[in-house]
Amino acid sequence: MKAIHNLQRHISIVILIIFLIPIYGFSQPKRQKPPKRKSKIESVDQFVDNAFKLYHKVFVYDSLTQVGVEVPSEIEDALVERAEQDIDSLWQVLPTILDDMSSGKGSIMKKAKATINLNKSKKALKYCMKTMKAYFVGSEEEDEN
């Protein structure tokens, strides 16, 4: 009786592990989608749009390299150039975001929606930083070898 109970416990643990391995081990990060609704604060909307343009470029490049497609150097150079332009446009919009969000002109609902949109763009930019660092700076393991 005790052996049957132990066998059932071990079988249930093995089944749980079998179902969780594909979820955590082999999945590509889910593509983040831009916000569906604009916040109606112009500088925030512009920042979010530029952040997701950059995210799209990085995600496509990452997807191609993970599949094993050889990206020609001309296309890489063009992607880097456009990414630099997107980053510059993000820096240009950033000071006006702070002014627009801290001023008392907009309603609380607009500012709340703007905050949600900025958080989504923050996640997208964080993915861009990690991916670009991995491809262009390299990992510590590659530096040691």
Question: Explain this structure to me?
Answer:
Helices cover 79% and strands 0% of the residues. With 145 residues, the protein is mainly α. The chain contains five helices and no strands. It has a domain at 42-137.
Biggest beta sheet attributes: none
Rg (CA only): 22 Å
**How many strand segments?**
0
Tally of separate helices: 5
Distance between the termini: 55 Å
Structural class designation:
mainly alpha
Shape field = flat
Output mean pLDDT: 80
The percentage of residues in β strands lies in under 5%
- Which regions contain 5 or more consecutive residues with pLDDT less than 50? none
Q: Helix and strand string, N-terminal first?
A: HHHHH
Binned, the helix content reads over 70%
Brief account:
With 145 residues, the chain is an all-alpha fold. Helices cover 79% and strands 0% of the residues. It has a domain at 42-137.
Annotate the secondary structure layout.
Blueprint: H1 2-25, H2 42-67, H3 73-102, H4 108-137, H5 140-144
